[in-house]
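Batch queue: ligand-bound targets. Current item pairs a single chain with calcium ion. No template structures supplied; prediction is de novo from sequence plus SMILES. Inputs echoed for audit trail.
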Amino acid sequence: MAENLIRNGDFEDGKTSWNFTSGQTSIIGEEDTVIPIKNKFCRISATESVYQQPFIQAGKTYLVNFRHRNAAEGTISIQTNNSHDTHWQEPIRLAPAAWTSALEGFHVEDKWGGNLVLHFHANAGSYVDIDDVEVYEVTLHGGKVSLTRIHKK
Ligand SMILES: [Ca+2]
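Prediction returned. Tokens below.
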């Protein structure tokens, strides 16, 4: 199996493994209307961010998969930790009514340097909910894209 490089990407362990720019951003549990189990997700307050440092390496390509629900736009990006140095960024498009899946990809260049974080930001206006964040390394084999199999030690 390809390994998700993001820890606690589903937020079921609360804030574990994530960093937050403010105390207003929170982990929220919601009742599923079909199955009576609480799902936890991250509600990023307007103008705030959450981020995590996955093990990603220069010269490799990655896919990011996540779900979002948001009445204001946000961004997903790769930044150098503790800086505003952004190497790659895509918008998180509006999804005010329901959870929506998004899939993005990026290739890590040498010049990006180390200490790279996957960074989610909520623009001004409203919060951005995110859940089920996954990052997988991908490789090309004769024109076919495949998720890289990583053998756990
Ligand atoms: Ca969840």
